[in-house]
Design goal:
By secondary structure, the protein is α+β, with helices and mostly antiparallel strands. It is 29% helix and 30% strand. α1 (49-62) runs antiparallel to α5. Keywords: Hydrolase, Lyase, Nuclease, Nucleus.
Length: 221
Amino acid sequence: PAPAGLPGDPDPEEAVSDDSSRHGGRVRGFPHERGNWATHVYLPYIAQEEFLELLELLVSRARTYVPSLAAMEEFHLSLSQCVVLRYHWIEPFVRSLRERLAAFHRFFCVADQVKVYTNQNKTRTFIGLEVSAGHFQLLELVSEVDRVLEEFDLPTFYKDPSFHISLAWCVGDLSGRLEGQCLRELQDIVDGFEESAFLLRIQWEQIRCKSGNKYFSFPLR
C-alpha cells in the first residue's frame, strides 16, 4: 500500500466508503479508489413549490406501476457523464471549464416531455422530463465541456443526447412497466397541470461541476 499523506491525496475525512445500503441500493458505475473523484458537469435546477406539486402527482401515479419508485431530492440537467478525475487534476480541470464556459449567456429551454431512461449498465431506471426546446444551446455547452474532457483523456458526452431532468428513480431495469400506458398517463398529467407551460420553461443561470464533495459554479452571463 502507498504511504498515507502523499501530495495530492484527499484528506482522510474526504475518503468515501462504498456501502450501497446507504444510498438506496444504487450500484456504482465504477469502483471507488482513494484519490479518484467522481466528477459531473450539469445545469442545476432549483425546484419551485409548483414543480414539487407536479412531481408528487407524477410519482404517485407512477408508483401504481412501480411501487419502489423514489422521487429525486435534487434536480439537474447533465452536460457530461460521470467521469473519474485524479485529485490533482481537479484544479486544472475546473480552470479549463471556467475559461471555455465564460462566454455563454443565460438561456431558456422547455422540458415538458415525460420519458423513461435506464443507466448504461441497466442497474437503475429513471423517469425524466425531456427537453423539447433549447436543444441547440445545450449542444453548444456540451461541445465545450467535451473539449475539456478530451484534454484530460476522459469520456465525452453521449453522441445524440436526450437532455432531461430526472424526476424519480428505482433500482433495476423496470422500464417495461413504466413505458406504454404509464408513460401516457404521466404525459397527460404534465399536459393538464395548471401553468405547466410557464413552469417547465426554465431559464438556466449557472453551470455547476461536482467533484467528490466539492462544488464549483460557473455563472452564465
